[in-house]
Structure formats: C-alpha cells, structure tokens
Amino acid sequence: MAVGLAVTMVALGAYATVRLQLQSSLDASLTERAQSVSSQLDSLVNQLGQLDPDQEVPLILLGATDVRVGFVYSNGVVSFKGWSDRVRLDDREFAVAQGTSDLSVRTIRAADGGGDYRVVTVPTRQPGVAIALAQSLEPQQRVLGKLGLVTLLFGIAGIVIAGVAGWGVARNGLRPVRRLTGAAEDIARTERLAPIPVEGADEIARLASAFNQMLASLAASRDRQRRLVADAGHELRTPLTSMRTNIELLSQSDSTHHALPPEARAELLEDVQAQLEELTTLVGDLVELARDEPVTRAFESVELSEVLDQAVARVRRRAPSVTFEVDADTWYVDGEGPALERALTNLLDNAAKWSPAGGTVTVSLARGVVTVDDQGPGIAEADLPHVFERFYRSDESRSMPGSGLGLSIVAQAAQRHGGSVEAGRAPSGGARLTFRVPGAPTPKPSGPPADPAAGDPAGPDDSA
C-alpha cells in the first residue's frame, strides 16, 4: 500500500508537471507570435489596406502554419477567415480589443466539436482591434494521453513487483518469528526447554537470545524444584526411618510382654522426641523456603538487639555446654520480628553446633551488622561460596545433625529485609558469619512502614 501510494503520487506529479510544462510552453509560443504580429501590424495594414473582417492574415507572418489567426473588434465582431463560425469568444477577448485588458489566454472548444484550442489575444496599435491566435491542443492531448497510459502501466507493474518483493521480504523476515513461535508452542506442548538456534544480529536474533535466557532460567528453576523435592525426600527419610524403628521397638516390647528396661525405654522415647523435633524443624524449614514471599508481611519497627537476646536465650537452652558472649547496640529495623529471630537463631545454632564443648561463641551487633564467631574448625575455602545454598552440606558436616537448610533461611531473611549475609573466617580460626540489615539507631516516627526490601532512606546509617 505504501509503494502503491508513492507510485500514484509520483505518477500524478509527473503527469501534472508535464501537462503544465506543455501548456506553459504553448502559451509562451502563442503569446510571442501574437505580439510579433501586433508589432508588424503597420506593415500588415500597408499590405492589406484597411483591416477588413473578411481579410485573412498571411500565416507567413507567424512563422508557422499550424496556427489560426483572426481579429477581434471592440464592437463584438470576430474575424477568423473560414473559421469564425466555430469560435465562441466572450468578454475577455473583447476587453483586450477595447483596451481594458492587456492579454487573454484561455482554452476554448470548437463549436462543431472539433476539439480544444488554446487562444491568445493581444492588443494592436489599431484602436478597437485585437489579434487572436488559436492553436489546436490535439497534439498536446495526444502526448498527455500516451504519457498517462505509460505511467498507468508502469505504475501498476511497479506496484505488482513491489507487492511481490514485499511479500517475499516479509515472508523471509518473519521466518525467525515463525520459528520462534513454533519453538514456543513445542515447549508448551512437550515441556522440553531446549534452546533455539540464534541467527544474525537483528532484533529477531535479540528476541531469540532473550527467549533462550528465559528458557535457561526456567530450566534452572525446574532443576532447583526437582532438587528441592529430591533433597527434601532424602532429608525426611532419615528421621522417619529412625522414628519408625524406635516406635516398632516400643510396640514389640509392649505386645510381647517383654518390657524394656526403664533406661532403654526412656532412651528410645528421648530419641523419638528428638527425631520429632528434628522432623518438625525440617518441615518448617521446607515450608519457609518453598514460598518466595511470606503469606503475610506484617512489617513493624523491630528492636534488633532484643530479637538477638531472645535468640541467644533459646540457643543457650539447646547448647548448655557453649558459652555465648554478646555485645549488642540498639538498632531498629522495619521488618518481621519472627523472621529475624529465626534467622539469628539459625546463625547461633550453627555456631553452637560447630563449637567444641566449653567453647565460646562471640556475638556482636553494631550499626545493623550482626557478627557471630565460633571456635570450630572454620569453613574451607571451597565451601565458602556454597554455605547459604539449600541442602548444601560439606563433607565434614554430613556426620552431624541438620538438613543444610538453616543458613539458606538466614540468607532468605536477609534478602527479604534488604540486607545481606556472608561467611568468612574468624580471627580465632573458626567461622565468622555476618548478617546485615538496614535500619537506624532510633525508631522511625509513627506512620505507614516502608518496605525494607526497597531500602531505608534514613541516611548514612543505611550503608551499615
């Protein structure tokens, strides 16, 4: 359509330009001839005598024989020798003869249907007389007719060729889009996340590259989901199997009337209780990690040192053989108190698990940075990048209780509150875990809390 419109505009412009140029050239030629005859009128009068309407002007004076010449009188008489009855002049030509107009140029049609003529009328030196020259427009119209036909044929041919070429270009240009569409439909049907071949460097190629990146993200997400299910099943199987064995022993002891010694029975019950606690913790960790966002996000101003004290008190009851040294400054965070307490508890549980009996765990809180140092063997360099991954357990930790989810929950809580967490080595040689959250040393004024994930606009303290 665009090419057709352009061809039409060009054709109309060319046709109009040629028509105007031909008409302008004809007008200039007729005007020049008429003025030439008018300037030679004195000699013409000497040759012909008094101008008579029945006299004919010799065409040799005009330099051509394709022009009809006549006289127009102010009294309304028109003299075209042998042609007067075919001419229908009006007041415009008579005004030139009367001296009220200097020139008249117009197109007239012969009275007997003999075609169109271009008529130029100029005044003469004879009062009340004007000279009119008329030339047929048939040659010009014939040229314009041929030009119009040629323009029409070539325009139609150009539109057809442009349409075919445009169809071919569009079909070839949309081939990558069709391939991308087919690949997307195939992925939706088969769930195979195979990447699409990328060709070229145009926008379609960029779209295919972005689509491949999306497929890679989907594949990674699906792999993480499968790994979560597999690891969760593996981690759940161990306490369930142990619990089942202990319960079967207790059941068999009751059914055979061979009661276990009180010490053995108490030991089995204590083991079952520990496994229940481990299973409950594991299920809670799985539920926490399975959702990207919490069901309800009740943000409030939380005093982090108080949350830290509660977490230390809880872990002290679990690990009475480990000493905790705490040094905490006041720090207020907009966030979820239970999530922060769970994260800090997991950090302290990890430190207590790796500290030897009688060891000391040093805990400090300064400007939103919680640092936990233990006196364990430390974290190997190869394990540092993977400490906060789900279900990751180093070779040394596989013989110890735990599922590898505690530090993952710490990282998730830090990210949810706009902070970060990292692992390193303590000066004493053990592990150092650092937990950072933005906040301020004083509580914010009352009002709707902001989302901590978007950062705290409190000022320089946020950088802590």
From TrEMBL:
Enzyme Commission number, as recorded: 2.7.13.3
Region described as Disordered: 418-464
A Pfam match: HATPase_c
Lineage of source species: Bacteria, Bacillati, Actinomycetota, Actinomycetes, Propionibacteriales
Biased composition (Low complexity): 452-464
Protein name: histidine kinase
Main subcellular localisation: membrane
Superkingdom field: Bacteria
Domain (HAMP): residue spans on this chain: 171-223
Assigned keywords, A-Z: Kinase, Membrane, Phosphoprotein, Transferase, Transmembrane, Transmembrane helix, Two-component regulatory system
GO cellular component: plasma membrane
Native source organism of the sequence: Nocardioides flavescens
Biased composition (Pro residues): 440-451
Segments crossing the lipid bilayer: 147-170
Matches recorded under CDD domains: HAMP, HATPase, HisKA
Catalytic activity: ATP + protein L-histidine = ADP + protein N-phospho-L-histidine
Broadest EC class assigned to this enzyme: transferase
Gene Ontology MF term list: phosphorelay sensor kinase activity
Subcellular locations according to the entry: Cell membrane
Residues covered by the Histidine kinase domain: 231-441
